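Ticket #4471: structure output looks truncated?

Reporter: J.K.
Steps to reproduce: submitted the chain below (127 residues) through the standard prediction queue, then opened the result file.
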Amino acid sequence: MGWRDKTQDETYSDEEVESRLKEYLPHWYLENGWIRRKYRTSGWKGTLMVVNTVGHLAEAAFHHPDLTVSYAFVIVKLMNHAAKGITNKDFELAQKIEEVIMWQPGKYGGALEGTPDDPRFKYIKYD
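Returned output as attached by the reporter:
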C-alpha cells in the first residue's frame, strides 16, 4: 500500500488520512480523530463473529480498536493513542480487518463456496 511513506508512529494530517481512505479503504471514514467503519450484520450471531474476528486481528497486531457493538452492527474505530493520531498502524490494521470481514470466497470460485444465498445462513451484509 502507498501509505508507508511515514515511520511507524508518525501521524498523518486529516487531509492525508482522507486521501488514503478514499484510495485504499473507501468504506472507512475519518471522524473526531478516528478512522471508522460500520459493519452491518444480520443479527447477534453475525455481530459476535465480527467482534471476535476483529479481536483476533487486533491482538495479533497488538494494536487495539475501540468497538461499538449492537444487535445488527459493529463500529470499529482506530487511532494510535500513543502517537495521538492516525498512523500506519491504523491503516494497516484497518486494511487487514477489511480484507477478512469482507472476504466472500464464493465470488472467486474454488472449493470454498461461501454462504448460500438464503436468509438462514446470512450473517453479514456485504458492501
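Triage note (M.O.): checked the attachment and the full C-alpha cell line is present. Strands lie at 29-31, 34-40, 66-70, 73-78.
Status: closed, working as intended.
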